[in-house]
Design goal:
Shape: elongated
Number of domains: 2
CATH topology of the largest domain: Rossmann fold
Distance between the termini: 55 Å
Strand order of the largest sheet: 5-2-1-6-7-11-10
Mean pLDDT: 93
CATH architecture of the largest domain: 3-Layer(aba) Sandwich
Low-confidence stretches: none
Largest sheet: 7 strands, mixed
Helix content: 25-40%
Radius of gyration: 23 Å
CATH superfamily of the largest domain: Class I glutamine amidotransferase (GATase) domain
Strand content: 25-35%
C-alpha cells in the first residue's frame, strides 16, 4: 500500500508527523512525503524542516492521500497543480484524508462537495464556503473520505484509518506502540469545553501570530552550490518557479537564445550544460540579500583544472519563495 503525505511550506508539523507515526507502522506499506518538487519544506514557524521524498508526479495514484493543514493553507488553495493532483489522486485512491485545515484543500479539489466534513474549529465557515457541510466532530468518515479536526486529531484519524485497512487489533497495537493514551491537564480541547474567555484568547493569539519561514541567504547559496557540485539538476530546479525566466550567455550558446522561459526549458538547458562542467566546482564567496526586492546575488568562483573564473547569479524570488527571474554573469 502506497501512502502519500503532502508537504508544503507553512504546514503544521503535527498535522503530518502525527499520521506518519501511526501509518508507517502498517504492514506492507510504503510511505512518501510528497510535494511539487524535491526540496526542503519548512513548517509555519520555520523551525522544522522536512525533506520531500517524492514529487507529486512520482506518486500520481497513491492508495492513501493524507493532506495536512497549516497557516499557509489559504495560499495553497490557489495552487492549481496541487489541487489537480489531489483531484486525480482521489479518483483512484482507496482513502483520501485530511488533518486540520487540510480539509480546505480537499474541498477545493471537489472531494468534499456535499459531504459532512471537519477541520480546525476556527476554519469551519471557510469549509462551508468551499462546498462541504462542516461539523465540529473530531473525526468524520464519509465513504472513503476521512477528515479530522485540528492538529492533534490527525493521530485519531490515522488510527481510525489503520483499523479500516488492517483491522482493529493492528490499530490497537499501533496505539499501544506509540503509547497514545492522552490525559491532558486541562479539559478544554474544544471550543465547547474551553468557554468563551479561552476561545477569545485563542482567537487573539492566532490573529497576532505571524507565521514565517525565515530565509537564510547564506544557507540557500551553500545548498545551491552543493547541488551543482554533485550535478543534481533536479535539486537545483526545485528552487525555481514554473514560470521562471532565466538569462545567461551560456544559454545562447546551448539553446540558441540567451533567455529561457519556464521550468521545462530551464531543465533542458541545465541538463545540456551540466555534463560540460566536467570537474568544475562552485565555491560561494559572498551573498547579498535585498529583502525589500526579494533579490539574492550569489558571487562565487568556478574552479576547474587549476583555474578560477569569477561569476555571479542574481535571483529574484516570488511570494512562495521560488526564483521567478535569474541572471547569470561570468567573468573572463
Amino acid at each position: 500500500m502506497q501512502i502519500a503525505i503532502v508537504l508544503f511550506d507553512g504546514f503544521t508539523a503535527l498535522d503530518a508527523i502525527g499520521p506518519y507515526e501511526v501509518l508507517k507502522r502498517l504492514p506492507s506499506t510504503t510511505l512518501h512525503f510528497v510535494a511539487e518538487r524535491r526540496k526542503i519544506i519548512h513548517t509555519s514557524d520555520g523551525l522544522v524542516a522536512m525533506a520531500v521524498t517524492e514529487t507529486l508526479a512520482d506518486v500520481p495514484r497513491p492508495d492513501v492521500v493524507v493532506m495536512p493543514g497549516g497557516p499557509a493553507t489559504r495560499e495553497l488553495m490557489s495552487n492549481e497543480a496541487l489541487i489537480e493532483w489531489v483531484r486525480r489522486a482521489h479518483e483512484s485512491s482507496a482513502w483520501t484524508t485530511s488533518v486540520c485545515t487540510g480539509s480546505l484543500i480537499l474541498a477545493k479539489a471537489g472531494v468534499l462537495s456535499g459531504l459532512e466534513a471537519t477541520g480546525h474549529w476556527m476554519w469551519l465557515e471557510p469549509l462551508r464556503e468551499a462546498g462541504a457541510n462542516p461539523s465540529s466532530k473530531r473525526v468524520i468518515v464519509q465513504g472513503k473520505v476521512i477528515t479530522s479536526a485540528g492538529v492533534s486529531s490527525g493521530i485519531d484519524m490515522a488510527l481510525a484509518l489503520a483499523a479500516r485497512i488492517s483491522g482493529e487489533d493492528v490499530a490497537k497495537a499501533i496505539q499501544l506502540a506509540i503509547e497514545y493514551d492522552p490525559e491532558p491537564p486541562f479539559d478544554c480541547g474544544s471550543p465547547e469545553k474551553a468557554g468563551t474567555e479561552i476561545v477569545e484568547l485563542c482567537r487573539r493569539r492566532a490573529a497576532a501570530a505571524k507565521p514565517k519561514v525565515p530565509f537564510d541567504p547564506d544557507r540557500f547559496a551553500r545548498e545551491w552550490a552543493e547541488q551543482w557540485n554533485r550535478r543534481d539538476v533536479d535539486a537545483v530546479l526545485s528552487h525555481f518557479a514554473s514560470n521562471v525566466r532565466f538569462t545567461s550567455p551560456r544559454a545562447k550558446e546551448l539553446m540558441g537564445h540567451a533567455t529561457v522561459d519556464g521550468i521545462e526549458e530551464l531543465g533542458a538547458y541545465f541538463r545540456k550544460g551540466a555534463p560540460l562542467l566536467g570537474t568544475m566546482r562552485f565555491v560561494v564567496d559572498e551573498t547579498i540579500w535585498d529583502a525589500a526586492r526579494r533579490t539574492l546575488t550569489i558571487i562565487y568562483d568556478r574552479h576547474r583544472d587549476g583555474g578560477i573564473q569569477r561569476a555571479c547569479e542574481i535571483m529574484r524570488f516570488d511570494s512562495q519563495g521560488l526564483v521567478r527571474e535569474a541572471d547569470a554573469l561570468y567573468g573572463a
